[in-house]
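Incident review: delayed structure delivery

Summary: a single-chain prediction request sat in the queue longer than the usual turnaround. Root cause was a stuck worker, restarted by the on-call engineer. No data loss occurred. The affected request and its eventual output are reproduced below so the record is complete for anyone auditing the incident later.

Affected input:
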Amino acid sequence: MKILHLICSPRGHASASAGLSRQMIDKLVASVSEVEVTVRCLNDFNIPHIDREFSISSRTHSRIEEPVGSRLLSDELIEEVVESEAIVLATPMHNLTVPSALKAWIDHVVRPNRTFRYVDNRMVGLLSDRPVFVSLSQGLEVGSGPDFLRPYLRTIFAAMGITSIEFFASLEGNNGRYALPRQGLDVLQELAPETTHEAIHELWSRYR
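Output delivered after worker restart:
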């Protein structure tokens, strides 16, 4: 099983969301045999915004033989998503939505004719579904204020064809102690070593 671990906080591995996400990773590693984890900490390399070449190539059907700039990085990031069988995404909520580093990552991977295509002015995903576990650190309790992060992530992943997404939130300021919700533990503990990709989809659908 291949897991893509995305860490999106400016605090990187020291962030609350990263700490919670590592608990998820540990559960998956303990429950599934032959696990390969790819860690992509967006704070480590200051992910850039997409550039002019990326924008031009995304609006044409011509194939660029030697992509450069952010188009080259886009190919690399998309390949990580394509090869993954599960995604663990650690992120804080910034100004009621996703942090800028995560938005930059999304702009690189949500790409016409690679991860989605337009059909009758609608975005139709080109990727197969896979579980996405979102480890979220936020300052307000769920439901106590506006939240544009959850609906945005659900919508943008669905645009690529990925609809099996669930959120595990932890409030900031609790002395660094973060624990997976009971439901999250139940989901991960049921992943037996012989679990296949299709079985993970079936399992995850019971918790949506």
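Verification: The chain has a mean pLDDT of 84.
Action items: add queue-age alerting; document worker restart procedure.
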